Give the backbone structure.
Amino acid sequence: MTKRYSSARNSVLRRCWHRVDFKAGVAILTSLALIALLSPVLVPYPEEGEGIVTDDARQRGPQPPSVRYLFGTDVVGRDVLSRVFIGSRYSLLQTTVVILGSLVLGIVLGILAGYLRGVYEVAISYAIELFILLPPAMVAAALSVIAGPSLYVVAASLIATWWAWYARIAYLLSRQIRELDFIKVSEALGFRRIYIAFRHILPNVAPTVVMQSIVDSSSILLEVATINFLVGSIAASLDTPEWGIMVGYGFRYITTYWWMSLFPGFFLIIAALGFILIGDSISEESSPNLRRRWMRWF
């Protein structure tokens, strides 16, 4: 069972690797990841990139894009290029944390609900339906009132809403797998139910949910940016160099200092494009109907 699923997944990945759009998405995200890792040594003004208003920044003030300041400077004179490059760490890391947190929580709870049955299935199923209905912005607003606005609060609010989608997939798959012969044999041999759930069901459920999270990654990135945009649009000052916050804060100066929002927004679109190219490739290669649709059109 596990070997058959593994072979199918490898076949999908091999087909994806032969697609130009998949390779383009990988190239985009790899480039952004390298920028995020090397940004402290790549940028000309690392202190300004981290949010510190230096004496030089105060003296230069806001300046439009030029040869010296390729992305211009913000309202307090900090180099926007430095802030955008260093901000890539915050944006990509926050998106990764949301994806991983949602995956772990969703897969574990979905398997427990789908295999253990009884009170676990009832309680977790109701929780899944409840959290699917919650809008992330409302959860973020509620958590901000309790804990104060921060990147951690935004990540927690998105994990609290996205886990339910992955839990539903894991739950439905677990219900199907628990009726198969190799699960019945394991139960007859006296293995503990928790052992069966995570030794036999998890390897057959996790890859499908993980692939779905890759497809959803662009949506998660944009949701993170949207909530951070709202935070930035009402912030009294701009210290954290996160792309969504930078776009939101710069939006109030869009008619005069348009470059403050333009460049972080551009990098946000490029990152979303990279995730979309990879996600669409996986969706089409794993679905024969989608592949046939594109073959009919082209």
